[in-house]
């Protein structure tokens, strides 16, 4: 009997224990322990970051923030301007060309004491422009493509008198400029070679062109701009010296050379090396 009472009490106690666990709202889970604070952090605390100032003066020295001065253009000594009129104490030689650009007027071919008040000089005060094939003057708007047409553009300014000698000293002569070479080109037919040597303002009265042999042309070409081109041109092929001619123009010397043998010329001068063979005209039949 006693054993049954003990076992019954034990069962009742177990049931009460289970019932109390089911209805308990208390969290018996132990909280995790926090790690101890680091001794380095307590000894040397990290300072909070400071905001970066955006004031220019705080970033760079005051001397370096001065306003930038624009670069000063280099000053070059320019030649003295041309005199606007001729010195009356200087005599003007016959056939002297006016110094103003594109005027091209010449003084009388004989000495005269007539008044120059009736002279009218039409010229370009600006400078020539050559850009991508277009040609013109800085002082006016007209533009052309052909060089000969450019030389014929009429001046855009007028003066009462020409400028033949300027203010040069009496009896003083400028040194003549000797040209070593001039630009040239040519074209041909079966019987003729037409060559152009480009040199402006050739003095027609003093120029000399001589066909001294069948393969050589002698040139002595002074200009009214105090320049001179002298050369003996060795021709590629023989010519008929009696029938060959020349013509002096405002911008060039044109040679009309009559071939003596009818052979094509790959070049104008024999001292220009070439292995090219040119046939002009119709090919012969076999």
Please give the alpha-carbon distance between the first and last residues. 156 Å
Structural class: alpha+beta
Helices, by number, come to: 4
Low-pLDDT stretches are 53-80, 276-286
Helix and strand run? HHHEEEEHEEEEEEEEE
Helix content: 10-25%
Mean pLDDT: 74
Rough outline? elongated
> Which sequence of strands runs across the widest sheet?
6-11-10-9
What characterizes the major β-sheet? 4 strands, mixed
Residue share in β-strands: 15-25%
How many individual β-strands? 13
Task: Supply Rg.
Answer: 51 Å
Give your account of this protein's structure:
- The protein has four helices and 13 strands.
- The protein is α+β, with helices and mostly antiparallel strands and 286 residues long.
- Strands 6-11-10-9 form a four-stranded mixed β-sheet, with no helix packed on it.
- A hairpin with a 2-residue loop joins strand 2 (128-131) and strand 3 (134-137).
- The longest helix has 21 residues, at 2-22.
- The model is unreliable at 53-80 and 276-286 (pLDDT under 50).
Which descriptors apply to this entry?
286 residues; alpha+beta; four-stranded mixed beta sheet; 4 helices; disordered C terminus
Describe the structure concisely:
This protein is α+β, with helices and mostly antiparallel strands and 286 residues long. It contains 4 helices and 13 strands.
Q: How are the secondary structure elements laid out?
A:
Layout: H1 2-22, H2 39-43, H3 56-59, E1 121-123, E2 128-131, E3 134-137, E4 143-144, H4 147-151, E5 157-159, E6 177-179, E7 184-188, E8 192-198, E9 208-213, E10 216-222, E11 227-234, E12 245-248, E13 252-258
Parallel strand pairs: 6-11
Antiparallel strand pairs: 1-5, 2-3, 3-4, 7-8, 8-13, 9-10, 10-11, 12-13
């Amino acid at each position: 009997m006693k054993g049954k009472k003990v076992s019954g009490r034990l069962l009742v106690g177990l049931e009460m224990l289970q019932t109390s666990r089911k209805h308990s709202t208390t969290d018996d889970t132990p909280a995790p322990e926090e790690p101890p604070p680091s001794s380095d952090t307590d000894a040397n605390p990290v300072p909070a970051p400071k905001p970066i100032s955006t004031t220019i003066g705080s970033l760079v020295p005051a001397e370096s923030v001065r306003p930038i001065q624009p670069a000063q253009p280099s000053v070059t000594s320019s030649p003295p301007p041309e005199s606007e009129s001729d010195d009356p104490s200087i005599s003007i030689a016959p056939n002297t060309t006016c110094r103003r650009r594109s005027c091209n007027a010449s003084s009388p071919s004989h000495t005269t004491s007539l008044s120059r008040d009736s002279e009218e000089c039409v010229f370009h005060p600006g400078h020539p422009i050559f850009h991508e094939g277009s040609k013109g003057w800085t002082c006016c708007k007209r533009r052309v493509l052909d060089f000969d047409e450019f030389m014929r553009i009429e001046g855009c300014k007028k003066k009462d008198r020409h400028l033949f000698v300027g203010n040069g000293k009496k009896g003083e002569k400028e040194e003549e400029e000797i040209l070593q070479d001039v630009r040239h080109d040519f074209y041909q037919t079966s019987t003729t070679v037409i060559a152009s040597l480009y040199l402006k303002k050739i003095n027609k009265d003093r120029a000399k062109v001589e066909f001294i042999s069948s393969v050589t042309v002698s040139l002595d070409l002074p200009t009214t701009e105090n320049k001179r081109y002298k050369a003996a041109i060795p021709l590629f092929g023989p010519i008929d010296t009696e029938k060959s001619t020349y013509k002096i123009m405002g911008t060039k010397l044109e040679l009309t050379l009559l071939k003596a043998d009818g052979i094509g010329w790959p070049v104008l001068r024999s001292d220009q090396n070439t292995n090219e063979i040119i046939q002009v005209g119709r090919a012969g039949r076999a």
